[in-house]
Amino acid sequence: MDNSNYVSLSLATALQRKLEVTANNMANANSAGFKGERVVFSSYLHRDPTAATGDTNFLIDRGSYIDSQQGAVSHTGNPLDVALKGNGWFSYETPQGQRVYGRDGHFATDVQGNLVTLSGARVLDIAGNPIALPPDAAAELSISRTGMISSLENGAIAQIGVFELPDLQTYERIGNGMFVQPDIAGLRPPVPDTGSEIIQGAIEGSNVQPVVEMTRMMSIQKAYERAVQLMNGEDELRRDLLRRVGRPAT
Q1: What does DSSP assign to residue 121?
Q2: Sequence-separated (6 or more) residues with CB below 8 Å from residue 123
Q3: CA–CA distance from 46 to each of 6, 53, 62, 185 (Å)?
């Protein structure tokens, strides 16, 4: 395989990765609190003084990053719905006991009275403990901008935990708009975030813009098709050369 095929293959591989990420963004355009993902590529210059065509540039997938831009806030009137305004993150405990973080504030209560997400993860307070609501308290709950849950009958109940994630770009997606801190030495732990505010009766939507993502997807697909066509063209030239070389002399 010559350099032209290697270049086309590196481009096609990178574009396939970008297409997968863009498709996932599109699929979550209506998911509460979802944060889009962006892929980062770089160019690698291979210097070969002996090559007749000179130096060669290859495309390398450098990974991806989380787009933490604020999503649009829409009011629902549901007293258990909360939207985050700022850079903070809610903390949850999954049914498997894993501590994760996300921005989905579409909450409900389970049969035990625990405050949970619609996917079943328990919402944690500022100390990292699950939040349990008194029976029949959901309708009269008041949630302050700092996340303090209270009611006239029970007074202060708990404070919803909002955390700053110093090493956010190292976190791993696990689905349902949630992230988990990887087991990497030296990462800074999450800390309480006092700069963000909570809005009761509202939901933060996804920060993905469907029209922009659709346009990006179409552009990626066209670029991918060109890369594949270039590889197919090189293969056809090689086959033609072999046919000519193997043809008996007349």
Answers
A1: P
A2: 90, 91, 92, 107, 114, 115, 116, 117, 130, 131, 160, 161
A3: 11, 12, 17, 33
- Token pair, residue 32, equals 């509460």
Q: Tens digits of per-residue pLDDT, 77-94?
A: 999 999 999 999 999 999
Residue 144 in tokens: 């302050």
Q: CA 137 to CA 141: how far, in whole Å?
A: 6
Q: Say if pTM beats, i.e. exceeds, 0.85.
A: no
Exposed, middle or buried, 69 (CB in 10 Å: 0-12/13-18/19+)?
exposed
Return d(Cα 201, Cα 76) in angstroms, integer: 5
* Torsion, CA 116, CA 118, CA 179, CA 23, rounded to 10: -170
3-state secondary structure of 54: coil
